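RETRY 2/3 - previous attempt timed out on the joint model. Re-submitting the same 640-residue input unchanged.
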Amino acid sequence: MGNLIWILVSAMVVNNFTLALFLGLCPFMGVSARVSTALRMGAANIFVMTLTSVCAWGLNTFVLPYAPYLRLISFIVVIASLVQVVEMVIKKVSPTLFRQLGIFLPLITTNCAILGLAIFQTNRGYDFLEGLFFALGAGLGLTLALVLMASIRENTELADIPSLARGMALVLIIAGSLSLAFMGFAGLLSAT
Amino acid sequence: MRDTTAQADLLRGIWRENPVLIQMLGLCPALAVTNTVANSLAMGLATFFVLVGSSLLVSSLRRLIPHEVRISTYIMIIATFVTVADMGLEAVAPDVHKALGAFVALIVVNCMILSRQEAFASKRPIGRSLLDAAGTGVGFLVALVMMGGVREVLGSGSFLGYRLFGDAFEPWVIMILPPGGFLTLGFLLLTLSWVRSRRAPESGVREWPHGVASRRAA
Amino acid sequence: MSGDAHPHGTSPVPPGAAPPGPPRDITPPRLLVTLGGAGVLAGLLIVVAYQSTQPAIQAHKAEVLRAAIHEVLKAPDRYDTLYVYDGALRRRLPDGVGPQGLETVYHGYRGTTPAGFAMAAGQPGFQDIVRLIFGYDPATRTILGMKVLESKETPGLGDKIERDTAFVRQFDGVAPPLSGVKRRGGSRAAGEIDMITGATISSRTVIGIINATLERLGPALERYDREAPR
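RETRY 2/3 succeeded.
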């Protein structure tokens, strides 16, 4: 159990997917400066990540030992299909949510974080439960980073920033500061 | 069809529409593997191979791919080339492959490659597509090596593994850690922005496609 | 997998600049044929690449393992691969049991004399998981050597567990159970390891990995050593 907690906490803050592992930067940079949108994007990501983790575990255990070279292609196909299915389900269940998420859902397909999750999980040889906790931690960490970035950007809209720095340069410098702050989590729950 | 010259197709991707610095695509590898120049070179070359290969294939098959499933087909083609590049790199340079880690496989979700297929290779003949892909690939390589150069020199005191400074140099370790990646790219963009503003002081309008922080997007 | 999932629509060519090409019918058979054809082509390419690269990849992996065992067992002539199965070390597994998922221990030999066991293990360190391989001789109950295989510890501080040769050499001939101390130089009692200044957690991780692995596998190692053919 302690191992599972470490996996969750490590994926969430110590080795945050966005701020330490550099995955999921497209939505991170591109998501608007609205906390509500960031939360929704994060929630969609958590959902897709947990499903992906389960499917990746299934593929790794039952299918891929016979054809390891098909790993990448099968992961991509699974992720794209999952996103398609999730999109259809959300459209049926809650059209308002679907409209609010809008363009974000298809974007999750090319989100390096989802594929990165599947690949990391494979490389570390996580079993079903470990993979699930890993995905949960990664998704929560991603959401955390998104929300933090969105709330900071909301505040900078009214700040007096030189026009040279506005835009991507500012976002990156903010991200750098966040990443620096998250480095403080290193050593959390490690062996003492 | 807009008449762009072959030379324009080639040179466009290298600087004026550099995928990393201008279009802000392919950021994940640009930040993750640029802690040494050697890794930057390897990633740039691997991406170049995938980009040119998939553009070649997409352009050759462009009349055969139905419109509805084109994205899926492009992704499958790109994934094939990435798998080949991954295995090739592991066989030829296992240490570099270990240093790049999962990011070789992540080339497949590099938005830059998909956007080149969608915007160019699926509509143009093979020759032009190759030029466009080569230009974009070189631009990516250039941006990565720029980042890698700054980070390795400041963070390890070396360039391509050769020590540059004496023992008195205290390496700025944060540069080879994640925050350094973000900050390096941020300041690189800042510098470019400043250079542009010096060149065209009268136009207060920024040319970045990814706009200004004050945009109230949905 | 359909839809215009185009993440960053900033293409330099204005949309609609190119003519759409000859009209295509969208019959399902045509879709299937195209996708199927592309799939077969892709599969062929991958399989060819796989077959041609696998020998080099496996050779390199074997060489890395051999070099690591060579270092921690102090140059054995050869080694056997043993599997941890059912609480004991076995050279041959019972029928129907594959080596997947089983922990491996390497038994080195110098001529016909056993030269100790090498085993790899990992645990979370300061930043991420640290993996190392170490050699152990059950006859003398000493550790023969230690080598860090993978670590993402802080460069300049935690990564000294790999680079600091003085730290690594402490593990040659030390008797477990290990304990970390912060004394600099001077005399050390049995089993004490001087931890790296500024990298206490990373050092403790290395010590913890070795202690935990020996606690778990120690009895099995000793039993095998007693019963091993000389």
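The radius of gyration of chain A is 17 Å. Closing ticket.
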